[in-house]
Amino acid sequence: MSSLIKFFEGLASYALFLGRFFAQLAQRPFEWQETSRQMYEVGAKSVLIVGVAGLAIGMVLAMQTGSTLARFGGQGLLPSMIAVAVLREIGPIITALVVSGRVGAGIGAELGAMRVTEQIDAMEVAALNPFRYLVVTRVLACMLMLPILTVYANALALLGGFFVMNLEQNMSLKLYFDSALRFLNLKTVLPALGKTAVFGFIIGSMACYLGYNTTGGTSGVGKNAMIAVVLATLLIVVADVVLVKFTILLFG
Known about the structure:
Number of strands: 0
Number of helices: 9
Oligomer: single chain
Shape: elongated
Largest sheet: none
Structural class: mainly alpha
Distance between the termini: 43 Å
Radius of gyration: 21 Å
Order of helices and strands: HHHHHHHHH
């Protein structure tokens, strides 16, 4: 019973935290400089790991499914299968999970360290607004950078698929992309890209919530950073199921 009570208390606390975020988001002046810095931290410093993941996804899909399609004489459909799978589902979810592991832990640890060393308290005493400066900027940066990182990962995944097909079937770049993009349009791509902003919101808000409310000294910092990654990953998977169902109902 006590654990159930703690769960609902944490849920209510997180809901109040989100309410405060949206209230602060509408206030001016806005911290554009800090937001830009956080966009660099989230985006530019995730380029390598996201790129490697995207390239590997495309290559693995091409190698794993090529032999299966060959049994049914469907090798020509392989580029289309890779494009649909990557752009509609695999690219967004893998990018979100990779960024969650890197950025979520970093934000949680950074804000947690500031809380236990009383830097946030010092900002409040100095009549500053640490919530708007530390939380709003980081959550917004995650929401803005996740779609960009997803486009980057998708492009490299398609390129990885081409490398495999070029080596195995000597397929030209033009033929590959003509076939890959045959069944794609804005109606199928934009909903998948739009949900990555929701994933970014989940990553940023969960990491900031746990980091901002860290207790227990340095051990609490590490614990909350780990919990931030776990909960963000779980919420991303759950949100993906809901958003996929929603987009199917809305767009068919």
